[in-house]
């Protein structure tokens, strides 16, 4: 057994280049072999990585440091990944979360997304796919930031739905609607392009930054949850409409 595998409760930090330029990622994973493998390959693409092996330390690190991304295992000692993610979102910490899970059930994946995870990977996964997902998430965050800075006063209204772009806030009939990062990105993308029909693959590529067959259900899950939050009757959507056999669109007649 390696020295790394024998270490308990460790916190490991790697720096690539200057601190001011490095992008920081937190890995919360109790399997040292997996965390070390992820760390090595993220270092290879110029990320600075912190690693903890339990949920409690993960919560402390995530709530007291500025990270661009959290890679979070579902099954953790001390506090599982779902609870950690829930607590971060309840504290208004919106750092993107990529959840890792060995479970194959749709329930666990959907629950993780509902609690605020931005994406997930099911173990075992390829390093290339992991790197692609990390880059895609961070690219979307950077793009969202640029769009917000370019649209400081932009406000989109459709009936009782109001989207304040720079604040990333949504209200329905004057009441605030709590959306995850991806739910907001989806809604904003639709609202900026009313009437345009998007396939699941197009939405996956635009919002998540990658397009892989087999992941279209991620789009379905997000749209279903978004509808529950903004529609008075999710079964008869007035904002996000289904175009059968094609995809979805935002109602252009509002």
Structure description:
The chain has 254 residues and is of the alpha/beta class. It folds into two domains: 3-143, Response regulator (Rossmann fold, 3-Layer(aba) Sandwich), CATH 3.40.50; 152-250, Arc Repressor Mutant, subunit A, CATH 1.10.10. It is 42% helix and 21% strand. It is built from nine helices and twelve strands. The chain has helices at residues 3-6, 32-44, 55-64, 81-90, 106-114, 127-150, 181-192, 200-208, 216-230; strands at residues 11-14, 23-28, 47-52, 69-73, 97-101, 119-122, 155-158, 161-164, 169-172, 175-177, 240-243, 247-250. The protein has a six-stranded mixed β-sheet, with helices on both faces. A four-stranded antiparallel β-sheet has the order 7-8-9-10, covered by helices on one side. Strand 11 and strand 12 (247-250) form a beta hairpin. It is globular. The termini are far apart. Residues 1-21 have low confidence and may be disordered.
